[in-house]
């Protein structure tokens, strides 16, 4: 199961810091969390979604204990 970590607005949209998910690809994970957390659907397309610290394609398999970070855009100066 992948460990999904939510940050900033993604954390607010889900009400979670982390959760374990059993989807087998990043694309399946994106679809599942959007269905589970409708408020996340509005921001997920703008988020950086990293698997083990890297941006990857939606067809990337998710291994056991893979870490997926959902990072909304951050304002900066």
Task: Give structural notes.
This protein has about 80 residues and is α+β, with helices and mostly antiparallel strands. Helix content is about 30%, strand content about 25%. It contains three helices and five strands; from the N terminus they run βαβααβββ. It has helices spanning about 10-15, 25-35, 40; strands spanning about 1-5, 20, 50, 55, 65-70. Strands 2-1-5-3-4 form a five-stranded mixed β-sheet. β3 (about 50) and β4 (about 55) form a beta hairpin. It is globular. The mean pLDDT is about 95.
Which whole number gives the mean pLDDT? 94
- Model regions low in confidence, pLDDT < 50 over at least 5 residues: none
Largest sheet: 5 strands, mixed
Evaluate the radius of gyration: 11 Å
| Percent helix range | 25-40%
- Protein structure class: alpha+beta
Fraction of residues in β-strands: 25-35%
Distance between the amino and carboxyl termini: 37 Å
Strand line-up across the major sheet: 2-1-5-3-4
| Number of H- or I-type helical stretches | 3
Principal-axes shape call: globular
Count the beta strands. 5
Write a brief structural summary.
It contains 3 helices and 5 strands; from the N terminus they run E-H-E-H-H-E-E-E.
List the helices and strands and how they pair.
Layout: E1 2-6, H1 8-14, E2 18-21, H2 26-36, H3 38-41, E3 48-51, E4 54-55, E5 67-71
Parallel strand pairs: 1-5
Antiparallel strand pairs: 1-2, 3-4, 3-5
Q: What are the key terms here?
A:
3 helices; 5 strands; 77 residues; five-stranded mixed beta sheet; alpha+beta
């Amino acid at each position: 199961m992948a460990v999904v970590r939510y940050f900033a607005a993604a954390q607010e949209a889900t009400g979670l810091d982390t959760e374990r998910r059993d989807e087998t690809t990043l694309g399946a994970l994106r679809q599942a969390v959007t269905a589970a957390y409708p408020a996340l659907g509005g921001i997920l397309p703008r988020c950086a979604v990293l698997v083990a610290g890297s941006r990857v394609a939606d067809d990337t398999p998710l291994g056991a204990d893979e870490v997926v970070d959902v990072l909304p855009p951050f304002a900066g100066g």
